[in-house]
Amino acid sequence: MKKNIVFTMFLCFMFLIGATEVSADSYAEPTPYQIEFENGNKIFYMYPCYLNHENGEPDDRWLQSGLYYNTEPLENIYLINSLYAPNHEQIYFYQGNLIFSDDGIYFVHMPWTQSGWNESIGQNPHGGGPAVEFYANGKMIKRYFVPNLVADETKLEYSVSHMYWEKAEKRDFDTATNILTFTTVDDIIYRFDITTGNVIDIDKVSGNKPRYIIVVVSIIIVCMLILIFAIKKYMSYDNHRII
What we know:
The protein is an alpha+beta fold. It has helices spanning 2-24, 117-120, 146-149, 209-242, and strands at 33-37, 42-46, 66-69, 75-79, 98-100, 106-109, 113-114, 130-136, 139-145, 157-158, 162-164, 172-174, 179-183, 188-193, 198-204.
């Protein structure tokens, strides 16, 4: 009886852990938001849905997602247009996944990448979903997938439904130059011009160099000790011959 109670408690505990992991990995509910640019002269609006779910017609409650001049009435600068929603229907980007230029004309979308690359890379190089997308005037100009950026797939980290390919804490964006820098989990540093989506340069984190230096220095020291020992032995042998 006691064993059954302990076993039941263990199962409940494991269920709670699993439920916590799943809920922590789920998407947040999409909500409308807006971002101001140039002291409020421009406003970027993002809405969860532009078309009505029932009849597919434009929903009067929402604006189409995009950038507007903050006038009365609002004057559209661009609407979001991507491969996912070529007619601007039902597209939503989470605010935390967007990086904008100061004027709002250019932005980068870095979505949470879904798991599945390992299973699909052999058949589909785009497996796992896009990692970085570049937009200009609301239109996608370049996008890169995880296999385009990560060389060592064994360094990828997975949660219940997502794949982590970037060291997010090392991400940096220079608003003066519009250069985005990020580091992959296998320590490759990329620098992109967000106005074109082109790679400016690629570098490798030099975290292993000190180890190599230590090895080289150690070898040099050992060689010097052997040389000193050999010289002393030769001199001792030579003195012995003179005596």
